[in-house]
């Protein structure tokens, strides 16, 4: 009857490997481990010949017994801190587990530990422990309660082994530590000096949670409550200091009256991985200095654990500290020689001959330069990485580098490689491209190569990444064969949505394939145990102090059963799989299907929130809110925006910030508040970087908005100039998709400025661009503009215009937003009205229905200009029908909107929401 | 003059005794060495020896001004640091005298005298805790100091032991001196009540430094040396806390003659070699036979690449003090640089017999093996040296070199990196790191390290050339950056003349023949001045001949062609042909010569 048999089989195999190189004991004995050993002994008392009862003596039920077992299991695997918990902490957790026996386990534990005062006591203690694992004479093997190969069994054996190989000095140290460990409970637990900063913090402090990881949560809550009060900026500057103080207080406390004993190496690495995930997920939640202080402390305790330096590098990177990140990057790779496993986050098997893997350093260096917006330096680093990894036959690194280069090329707009890559030699010959190619062609070649390598080398994560990049590429680029001969070469110049879809689907296969990847060997990273322990604290907490749930960036289902098991899929894999959904949403945005956008964004926000980084998650929210703004009007969007801002409190969340400005700008334009619109335009201009080629999308958006503002201000020539220069920029950087909308904008400008004939070619060009890139909704909108242009040419073209409108209506009514629908309705009514063969009196519904629909939609949007037009048309229609009363009513509405447009009042309101 | 020397002697004699009584052995040793080093002849020393570094006018002005008597003791000193280096921090100006400090009276043996004697003997036998125990409840300053010092030493001893005991799989744990907290508490109380002497302050400074309160430690140490300047240990602790010249300039030190020793050694540490040398030479005038000063001067000269001079001094030093181990590692580095194998083996043998468990000895032996080409053994001895002293900076760097020889790049990088982490200003280690990465074919990555090293040593042409070579390398091909680096190198005394030649070549590659000609000419001048000839010389002549011919300056072109005729090889023929072409051109014939076009 072995409980937990084989539970930790994997860990048992893994642990010797990680410690194998040093040849020392697997773990270092600490008082905490002694306490756990004692508890294991209680859990599985040495078998006595004859009567043994289930459950053993102090336990009241099997459930109770199992609960302790689970607790011990998690204790040996949790990684919420690099230090081991104090006795006090352990006792608190134990109490939560051991409700039934009124803390008899706790008393037993303290009394056992406090009688260990001489080396001989320790010998006897471990002698007794041995009895747990071995059956007494005459009893069969099935009489042992604990399988020696289970997690706890292995733990116990490691402890016994460590004790046996301990020197006498070591035992003396252990005894000294034990005395301190036991005494730490006597000192009353107070942090009086911190009491003044926040009442909520105080409550939490009283609820006595003290683990380091929980502090982060508390801090987050504290900061949120502060930002509720008002100035978020001051809260931001203050909050890190608070945490820093708190941290300091904690560390000093530990330094002075508690021996700092490290957890086992395995747990430390899991802890570091967890911190890395945290950094990636939401860098703003990790204050730069206190995190560095923690890491420095860890480093003094474990100087040979070089991964700490990597974390310091990540930390500096996330907080945009160029110098520090560069220094830490070089230091990490100098010390570790890239051998501590960059891709597989675990220690790789010990090799006989140590040859450094410095290509990984170059890969990181390239990414660093990429992050800080130095594309040229990044490319140099990457091409050197390509060279070195080819030289060292490091294929997987090469594949990753190729992926990174393609990421760089895709991310940063470059007109051509010449001048960016200093020598054509460096990228050209190494990657095997003889003739200079356009950036897009190079990108495609690189992606395909990377894909092939990833496939060969069985790197599912990279494979997924490459599929995603390919999908991104296919979305925006027409693929032409690189070499085409003769008349048979296909000349289909359209993007291929099927390819995009295929790639997206293939990328999701990472969810099932991740087992073969080194990246995912960290699946057993103890996060389950950590969260279990944390939940234990929260559960016992909520029982005492009512419900106080923290608002974390977590999946919603976590709220329902917080004791539930977290997802077994490692978070990097989840992240990749999730980004495929995000990309799906973007793809459908392009192809013009609103419901699909909503659906995919929703899937992302609900299912992948756990693993997502805050920036990606905020992107999903942005997409949802944008949809709201387009379909439900601004008030709904602003409501949602407020929620989103609360969820992503830091000003660092640039997506949300941009979204706010976008919506505000739209609304200002619709309301006719041009000054406000201009102001927001200027803000956009400030946000985009001055460096050429960097954040090209933001730059384009800024110009588009400027042109639209000018258009709304009826400064047509200037608007046209801006749009024209924008077009040439897009052309230069090969941004065809953006070109389609810029062309449409130009057509709009010419339409508004009554240069109808000039507008027609632009509209047609835009339409054909849309066709070749499958931008269906934009195409419908272009068709509509085309219809308007025809209509403006005179009533003789009404028929043609009408047919165009009918052509675009299904798409618009199905997927178009409020504005587009209203426009379509108005154009429809206009067509009818200007058609000489059409008589309003006969078929008044054909005109009035769309107009009513349009006025309804425009009211939600507060779009005065178009609403005025709709009411005007309505008045005309009523006039034709001789319905004077209705006509006057419509005319009054028209007047109302016109005055609102011409004399904008309370413009400053447009900045508030 | 003699009286001044006599004063030094009196002071040092008292100091050596007082320091020894307080068990500050190394400071006592230093004082005693210096005491013996004071020039013995009583006849007036030739003043020229003293004046050599400083301008004589400043000195004479100083003499005139220096008439007032300093308070306290009656000695005064005529030879102050001269005006030449008066711009340095804290250096007394020409006319400012040293501040003299009265030699403190020792506590007379009071009731606790016997116990103190017992404690001191315990201390001498390294039974620190026992010594401290004996002195419990003694209130004399001397007793308090010795008790605290004994406790400190006991804590240090325990710490060293723990460092070994607690070595875990993740490296050493941070063993700390357990006595620090109690000591700090006690010493700060004493300082507040004013019942602390300068020795106590020194100990307090040590404790503070170990606790990481460096600023306060610096203040306390300054207080200590101001009240008792003869404690060299206090000075050297202070020096280790002066990590930059700014810190040094902000110290508020009294102008005692001991300060000169401090400044000189700190300048040496901060790589301000000229200033250090000046000060040492001046001190040499008084302490004529001091081995310490000789060794320091030799070290400075070695650092300034003046190997012959330094070797002479070291030889002399070894003759007078054959069992000396201090600073002998520098001597071995020097012998290594000069590749004098026999001298090095002799030195290694001697220090081995003297004391083989000194980090310096191990380092010397390692150097010997390295010169013999037995790099594995060399690494072994460097490792031993580092085991004896983890913070032995030059050993880390040298071990890095050895690993490079062994082609063990990760180990080499690790060694260099540790050197850099001990002292981030060690430009040699940064340079070594850069070289390794360059060797591994990562010039872009290496640039970071070369940048670091040239930032620390901006006037070293070698570093700039290394950086330029990275830029110039095949994969990077960043010619313009390379040119910038070579220019820096050419401006900072490039002895090997690589920079000028490369500059000319690169400009030629870029098609900037004017600039190329300029640099070729400069390179020619340099080679002529150094009477060096070779391929580079011929290349320069050929280019210049062609260049001047192309721009129509036939006279110059002819001049260079004629010079080329002195050399054998294909260039000679080319020059001949060219000369003919030039003649034809000059005589106004239409240029139809095929040879001419072929050029």
TrEMBL record, chain A:
Keywords: Cell cycle, Cell division, Mitosis, Ubl conjugation pathway
Entry keyword annotation includes Transferase: no
Pfam families hit by this protein: ANAPC5
Tree of life domain: Eukaryota
Domain Anaphase-promoting complex subunit stretches: 310-409
Cellular component aspect of the GO annotation: anaphase-promoting complex
GO biological process: anaphase-promoting complex-dependent catabolic process; cell division; positive regulation of mitotic metaphase/anaphase transition; protein K11-linked ubiquitination
InterPro entries cross-referenced by the UniProt entry: Apc5, Apc5_dom, TPR-like_helical_dom_sf, TPR_rpt
Job description of the protein: Component of the anaphase promoting complex/cyclosome (APC/C), a cell cycle-regulated E3 ubiquitin ligase that controls progression through mitosis and the G1 phase of the cell cycle. The APC/C complex acts by mediating ubiquitination and subsequent degradation of target proteins: it mainly mediates the formation of 'Lys-11'-linked polyubiquitin chains and, to a lower extent, the formation of 'Lys-48'- and 'Lys-63'-linked polyubiquitin chains. The APC/C complex catalyzes assembly of branched 'Lys-11'-/'Lys-48'-linked branched ubiquitin chains on target proteins.
Family: Belongs to the APC5 family.
PANTHER family: ANAPHASE-PROMOTING COMPLEX SUBUNIT 5 (PTHR12830:SF9)
Protein name per its UniProtKB record: Anaphase-promoting complex subunit 5
Organism of provenance: Digitaria exilis
Record lineage: Eukaryota, Viridiplantae, Streptophyta, Embryophyta, Tracheophyta
Automatic annotation (TrEMBL), chain B:
TPR repeats: 393-426, 427-460
Keyword annotations from UniProtKB, A to Z: Cell cycle, Cell division, Mitosis, Repeat, TPR repeat, Ubl conjugation pathway
Gene Ontology CC: anaphase-promoting complex
Region (Disordered) residue spans: 72-97
Biological process per Gene Ontology, one example term: positive regulation of mitotic metaphase/anaphase transition
Statement: the UniProt record of this protein carries the keyword Isomerase: no
Stretches assigned to the Cdc23 domain: 8-298
PROSITE patterns documented for this protein: TPR (PS50005)
Annotated PANTHER family: CELL DIVISION CYCLE 16,23,27 (PTHR12558), CELL DIVISION CYCLE PROTEIN 23 HOMOLOG (PTHR12558:SF10)
Protein name: Cdc23 domain-containing protein
């Amino acid at each position: 009857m072995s409980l937990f048999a084989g539970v930790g089989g994997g860990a048992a195999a893994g642990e010797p490997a990680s410690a194998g190189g040093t040849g020392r004991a697997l773990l270092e004995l600490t008082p905490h481990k002694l306490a756990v050993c004692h508890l294991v002994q209680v859990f599985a008392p040495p078998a006595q010949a004859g009567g043994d009862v289930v459950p053993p003596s102090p336990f009241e039920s099997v459930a109770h017994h199992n609960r302790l077992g689970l607790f011990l299991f998690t204790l040996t695997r949790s990684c919420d801190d690099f230090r081991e918990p104090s006795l006090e902490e352990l006792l608190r957790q134990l109490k939560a587990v051991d409700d039934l026996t009124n803390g008899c386990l706790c008393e037993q534990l303290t009394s056992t530990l406090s009688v260990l005062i001489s080396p001989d006591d320790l010998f006897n203690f471990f002698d007794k422990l041995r009895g747990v694992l071995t059956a007494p004479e005459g009893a069969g093997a099935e009489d042992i309660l604990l399988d020696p190969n289970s997690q706890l069994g292995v733990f116990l054996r490691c402890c016994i082994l460590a004790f046996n190989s301990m020197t006498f000095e070591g035992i003396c140290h252990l005894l000294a530590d034990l005395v301190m460990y036991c005494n730490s409970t006597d000192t009353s637990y107070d942090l009086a000096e911190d009491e003044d900063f926040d009442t909520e913090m105080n409550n939490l402090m009283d609820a006595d949670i003290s683990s380091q990881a929980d502090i982060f949560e508390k801090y987050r809550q504290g900061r949120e409550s502060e930002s509720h009060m008002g100035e978020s900026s001051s809260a931001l500057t203050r909050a890190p200091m608070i945490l820093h103080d708190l941290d300091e207080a904690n560390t000093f406390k530990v330094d002075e009256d508690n021996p700092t004993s490290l957890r086992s190496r395995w747990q430390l690495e899991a802890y570091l991985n967890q911190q890395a995930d945290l950094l990636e997920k939401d860098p703003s939640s990790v204050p730069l200095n206190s995190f560095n202080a923690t890491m420095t402390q860890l480093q003094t305790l474990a100087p040979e654990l070089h991964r700490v330096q990597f974390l310091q590098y990540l930390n500096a990177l996330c907080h945009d500290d160029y110098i520090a990140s560069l220094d830490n990057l070089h230091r990490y790779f100098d010390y570790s020689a890239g051998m501590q496993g960059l891709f597989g986050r675990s220690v790789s098997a010990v090799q006989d001959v140590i040859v450094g893997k410095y290509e990984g350093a170059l890969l990181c260096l390239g990414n660093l330069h990429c992050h800080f917006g130095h594309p040229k330096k990044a490319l140099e680093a990457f091409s050197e990485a390509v060279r070195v990894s080819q030289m060292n036959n490091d294929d997987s690194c090469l594949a990753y580098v190729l992926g990174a280069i393609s990421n760089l090329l895709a991310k940063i707009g470059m007109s051509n490689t010449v001048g960016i890559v200093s020598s054509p030699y460096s990228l050209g010959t190494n990657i095997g491209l003889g003739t200079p190619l356009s950036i897009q062609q190079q990108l495609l070649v690189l992606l395909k190569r990377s894909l092939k390598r990833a496939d060969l080398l069985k790197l599912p994560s990279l494979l997924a990444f490459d599929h995603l990049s390919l999908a991104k590429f296919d979305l925006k680029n027409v693929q032409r064969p690189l070499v085409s001969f003769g008349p048979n070469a296909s000349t289909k110049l359209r993007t291929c949505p099927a390819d995009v879809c295929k790639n997206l689907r293939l990328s999701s296969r990472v969810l099932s394939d991740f087992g073969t990847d080194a990246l995912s060997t960290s699946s057993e990273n103890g996060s389950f145990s950590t969260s279990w322990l944390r939940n234990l604290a929260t559960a016992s907490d909520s029982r005492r102090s009512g419900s106080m749930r923290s608002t974390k960036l977590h999946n919603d289902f976590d709220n329902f059963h917080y004791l539930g098991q977290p997802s077994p899929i490692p978070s990097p894999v989840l992240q990749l799989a999730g980004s495929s959904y995000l990309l799906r949403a973007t793809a459908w945005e392009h192809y013009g299907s609103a419901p699909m956008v909503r659906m995919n964004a929703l899937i992302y926000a609900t299912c992948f929130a756990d693993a997502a980084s805050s920036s990606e998650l905020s992107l999903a929210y942005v997409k949802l809110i944008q949809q709201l703004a387009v379909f439900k009007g601004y008030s709904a969007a602003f409501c949602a925006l407020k929620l989103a801002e609360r969820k992503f409190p830091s000003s660092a969340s640039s997506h949300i910030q941009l979204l706010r400005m976008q919506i505000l700008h739209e609304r200002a334009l619709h309301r006719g508040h041009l000054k406000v619109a201009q102001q927001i335009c200027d803000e956009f201009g400030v946000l985009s970087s001055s460096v050429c080629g960097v954040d090209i999308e933001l730059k384009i958006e800024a110009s588009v908005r400027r042109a639209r503002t000018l258009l709304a201000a009826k400064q047509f020539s200037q608007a046209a100039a801006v749009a024209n220069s924008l077009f040439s920029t897009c052309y230069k950087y090969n941004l065809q998709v953006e070109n389609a909308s810029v062309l449409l904008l130009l057509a709009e400008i010419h339409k508004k400025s009554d240069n109808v004939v000039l507008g027609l070619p632009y509209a047609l060009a835009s339409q054909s661009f849309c066709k070749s890139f499958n931008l269906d909704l934009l195409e419908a909108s272009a068709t509509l503009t085309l219809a308007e242009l025809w209509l403006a040419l005179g009533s003789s073209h009404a028929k043609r215009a009408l047919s165009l409108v009918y052509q675009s209506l299904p798409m618009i009514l199905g997927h178009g937003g409020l504005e587009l629908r209203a426009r379509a309705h108005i154009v429809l009514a206009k067509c009818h009205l200007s058609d000489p063969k059409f008589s309003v009196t006969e078929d008044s519904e054909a005109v009035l229905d769309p107009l009513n629909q349009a006025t309804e939609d425009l009211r939600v949007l507060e779009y005065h200009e178009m609403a005025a037009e709709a009411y005007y048309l309505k008045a005309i229609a009523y006039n034709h029908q001789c319905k004077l009363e209705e006509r006057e009513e419509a005319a009054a509405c028209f007047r109302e909107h016109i005055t609102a447009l011409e004399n904008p009042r309370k413009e400053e309101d447009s900045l508030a929401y | 003059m003699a009286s001044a020397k006599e004063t030094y002697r009196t002071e040092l004699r008292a100091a050596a005794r007082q320091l020894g009584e307080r068990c500050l052995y190394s400071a006592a040793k230093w004082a005693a060495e210096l005491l013996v080093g004071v020039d013995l002849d009583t006849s007036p020393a030739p003043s020229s020896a003293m004046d050599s570094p400083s301008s004589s006018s400043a000195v004479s002005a100083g003499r005139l001004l220096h008439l007032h008597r300093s308070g306290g003791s009656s000695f005064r000193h005529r030879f102050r640091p001269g005006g030449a280096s008066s711009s340095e921090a804290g250096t007394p100006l020409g006319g400012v005298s040293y501040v003299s400090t009265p030699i403190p009276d020792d506590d007379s043996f009071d009731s606790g005298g016997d116990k103190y004697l017992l404690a001191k003997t315990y201390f001498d036998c390294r039974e620190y805790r026992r010594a401290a125990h004996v002195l419990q409840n003694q209130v004399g300053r001397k007793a308090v100091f010795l008790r605290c010092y004994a406790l400190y030493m006991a804590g240090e001893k325990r710490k060293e032991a723990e460092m070994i005991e607690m070595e875990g799989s993740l490296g050493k744990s941070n063993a700390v001196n357990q006595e620090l907290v109690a000591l700090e508490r006690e010493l700060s109380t004493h300082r507040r009540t004013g019942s602390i002497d300068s020795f106590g302050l020194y100990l307090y400074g040590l404790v503070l430094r170990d606790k990481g309160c460096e600023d306060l430690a610096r203040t306390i140490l300054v207080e200590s040396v101001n009240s008792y300047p003869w404690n060299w240990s206090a000075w050297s602790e202070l020096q280790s806390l002066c990590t930059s010249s700014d810190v040094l300039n902000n110290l508020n030190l009294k102008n005692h003659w001991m300060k000169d020793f401090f400044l000189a050694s700190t300048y040496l540490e901060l790589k301000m070699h000229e200033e250090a040398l000046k000060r040492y030479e001046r001190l040499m005038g008084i302490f004529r036979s001091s081995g310490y000063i000789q060794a320091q001067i030799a070290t400075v000269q070695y650092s300034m690449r003046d190997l012959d001079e330094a070797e002479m001094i070291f030889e002399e030093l070894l003759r007078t003090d054959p069992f000396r181990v201090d600073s002998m590692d520098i001597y071995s580095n020097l012998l290594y640089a000069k590749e004098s194998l026999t001298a090095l083996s002799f030195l290694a043998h001697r220090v081995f017999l003297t004391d083989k468990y000194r980090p310096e000895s191990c380092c010397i032996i390692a150097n010997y093996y390295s010169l013999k080409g037995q790099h594995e053994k060399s690494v072994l001895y460097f490792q031993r040296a580092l085991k004896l002293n983890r913070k032995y900076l030059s050993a880390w760097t040298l071990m890095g070199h050895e690993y490079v020889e062994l082609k063990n790049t990760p180990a080499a990088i690790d060694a260099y990196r540790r050197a850099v982490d001990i002292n981030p200003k060690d430009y040699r280690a940064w340079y070594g790191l850069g070289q390794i990465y360059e060797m591994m074919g990562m010039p872009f990555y290496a640039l970071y390290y070369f940048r670091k090293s040239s930032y620390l040593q901006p006037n070293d042409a070698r570093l700039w050339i290394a950086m330029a070579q990275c830029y110039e390398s095949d994969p990077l091909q960043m010619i313009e950056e390379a040119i910038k680096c070579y220019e820096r190198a050419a401006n900072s005394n490039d002895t090997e003349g690589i920079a000028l030649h490369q500059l000319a070549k690169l400009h030629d590659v870029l098609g900037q023949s004017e600039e190329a000609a300029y640099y070729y000419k400069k390179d020619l001048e340099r080679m002529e001045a150094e009477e060096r000839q070779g391929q580079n010389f011929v290349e320069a002549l050929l280019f210049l001949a062609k260049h001047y011919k192309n721009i129509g300056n036939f006279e110059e072109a002819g001049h260079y062609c004629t010079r080329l005729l002195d050399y054998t090889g294909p260039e000679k023929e080319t020059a001949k042909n060219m000369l003919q072409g030039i003649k034809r051109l000059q005589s106004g014939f239409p240029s139809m010569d095929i040879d001419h076009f072929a050029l």
